[in-house]
Amino acid sequence: MVALTQDELLAEFEGMTLIQLSEFVKAFEEKFDVTAAAAVAAAPVGPVATAEAPEEKDEFDVVLTGAGDKKIQVIKVVRELTSLGLKEAKDLVDGAPKPVLEKVAKDAAEKAAEALKGAGASVEVK
User: Fold this and answer.
1) How far apart are alpha carbons 29 and 23 in whole angstroms?
2) DSSP label at residue 37
3) Predicted TM-score (pTM) above 0.85
4) Which of 50, 87, 97, 113 has the maximal Cβ count within 10 Å?
5) 5 CB neighbour count, 10 Å cutoff
6) Using CA atoms, how far apart are residues 63 and 57, in angstroms rounded to an integer?
7) pLDDT tens for each residue of 108-118
8) Under DSSP, is residue 90 helix (H, G, I), strand (E, B) or coil?
9) b/e map of 69-107 (b: 16 or more CB within 10 Å)?
10) Is 61 exposed, middle or buried (0-12, 13-18, 19+ CB in 10 A)?
11) Of 62, 56, 64, 60, which is closest to residue 106 (Cα–Cα)?
12) For residue 126, which of 92, 103, 108 has the smallest C-alpha distance?
């Protein structure tokens, strides 16, 4: 068996969709009996400022709420955005409301929402 370098592994992960990567993480956790949870930071000691600025959201979900009249066009756009197969994309569109993209940057979420709206779908960005 050929061992992959860290750079080769990262290149493979880069080519995966979020759904595929999520499934990989779950399988990895089950196989090695570990969790990929982030470490929890300790609470600050001492006085805390009460007038903190609200944190700006940097991850957004694009949720398909309806396919509209042009269902085939919406399925094509979903396939382009997610690299899902035809059946998976059709199931996602038929099962609306469902997330198309999860935890993506604001500009990517807006572009995806505009592409879906252009195909005739109803979309929410959360």
Assistant:
1) 10
2) P
3) no
4) 113
5) 8
6) 16
7) 888 888 888 88
8) helix
9) eebebbbbbbbebbebeeeebbebbeebeeebbeebeee
10) middle
11) 60
12) 103
Tokens of 52: 């903190």
Mean pLDDT, residues 5-18: 85
* Chain-centroid distance, C-alpha 89: 15
Token pair listed for 60: 């957004």
Alpha helices in the chain (DSSP H): 6-14, 18-32, 71-82, 86-94, 106-118
pLDDT in tens, 12-66: 888 888 888 888 888 888 888 887 665 555 555 555 555 555 566 778 888 888 8
Which two three-digit tokens encode residue 100? 């198309």
Q: Which amino acid is at 112?
A: A
